[in-house]
């Protein structure tokens, strides 16, 4: 156990002694394979005998934990979730204590005001190294994407993959806020996934940062319990209008007299030369 982990455990025990338990509240994104994920981007390991209770009555829950359900997670000193109090009504969002943050098996950037934050780094996946081995075990992969501000507010975002035959609605994503969507899926270790983002059709696939067709994104899944991926979409194909975007420093030539086709038309001269 590292010294930092030991300090976190001591802090957690201190909190337990003062208040009886450590707990956080939030909205669920996924509940599967021994983990619970919140829309904040934090994922935690579930205790084998985790209790599912109703938040209001503390009786056994009749609600199934899943997306858009609110929950209060209660932790053991070791960092496992021992109790989930479920609610269909919003629960007050509480700051996550540093001791609890140490228990997170995965954490994504938070977006309190997406328009004022820089875009997250894109996870390119990369090729597996020649010495890397894969067990083929299922890995929980959480994918978060930031879409352009021109995306319609009622849009549904999907992921299309080579394994789905490029079905434009292969994987539906959940909306986090106006500009961010997220989905969690189980993918076997050793998988190399090629994918795009779409708004439900091939005509609304994403385009590259220059507005042109882009190569498929690539994600290589290694041997890990969880994986977090953050991507950015810059343009949608159907919002470009099928016109090629002008390149920087383009000058007119005899072979390309109008390098900027999107400029407004020149106004007609006034009568009598005025």
Your description of this structure?
With 274 residues, the protein is mostly beta strands. The chain has 2 domains: 3-101, no CATH class; 114-240, Immunoglobulin-like (Sandwich), CATH 2.60.40.10. Helix content is 9%, strand content 32%. The protein contains 3 helices and 15 strands. The strands form 4 sheets. It has a 5-stranded mixed beta barrel with strand order 1-2-3-5-4. The longest helix is centred in the N-terminal third of the chain and has 17 residues, at 3-19. 24% of the residues are buried. Mean pLDDT is 77; it is low at 6-19, 108-124 and 242-250.
Q: Which class of secondary structure composition applies to the elements?
A: mainly beta
The tally of helices reads 3
What is the makeup of the main sheet? 5 strands, mixed, barrel
What share of residues is helical?
A: under 10%
Tell me the name of the CATH class of the largest domain.
Answer: Mainly Beta
The overall pLDDT average reads 77
Tell me the quaternary state: single chain
Number of domains: 2
Fill in the CATH topology of the largest domain: Immunoglobulin-like
Low-pLDDT residue spans:
6-19, 108-124, 242-250
Q: What do we call the CATH homologous superfamily of the largest domain?
A: Immunoglobulins
Q: Examine the secondary-structure arrangement and name the CATH architecture of the largest domain.
A: Sandwich
The shape is: globular
Span between N and C termini? 84 Å
